[in-house]
Amino acid sequence: MQQIRDYLEQTVKMTDKDWIMFSSKLYRQEFPKNTLLLEAGSTEKHLSFVEEGIIRFFIPKEENDLTFAFVFENSFVSGYDSFLTQTQSTYTIQTLTKTILWRITYEDLQRIYEQTEIGNTIGRKAGEELFLKKSKREISLLDETAEQRYLNLFTEQPHLIKNIPLKYIASYIGITPQALSRIRKRIY
């Protein structure tokens, strides 16, 4: 749990009182590899912080799922649009490795917002992080080649990317597994 406080305090100083209030609403959950955290058609009930693990966001399709995001440790994770609106998600969130999350429910986060000075700052920080990742991804898809997107992913998390099946990486960068194989041969 200290990981979360350290992460948040990179941008905002928390009083012990605010931290105790916030952390009292967090609970730790462990998930095995390939667990669905959110299924398409369900409503997101949690904002979570990844202590350990790799998570994939995808749109389920008949033949090949469309992977559009990965989340690694020391990051927030949520089906955030579903979380904010409390409506059904159009995508699925799945663990790719054993994953440990610190979670807070929608209702508890609303109480934190109301009862603490720091609550809105915490919510804003989580929301900003999720927005910036989404924005970076969109720009990458519009402005970079598949090879650049692969290299960026590899550069960001070199020790973790080896745990992601190549078919998900190919989907994420918008190419077929065969095209990814050709890129990898050129690079290595």
Automatic annotation (TrEMBL):
GO terms for molecular function: kinase activity. It comes from the Bacteria. Residues 26-112 form the Cyclic nucleotide-binding domain. PROSITE patterns: CNMP_BINDING_3. The keyword Cytoplasm does not apply. Keywords: Kinase, Transferase. InterPro entries: cNMP-bd_dom, cNMP-bd_dom_sf, RmlC-like_jellyroll. This is cAMP-binding domain of CRP or a regulatory subunit of cAMP-dependent protein kinases.
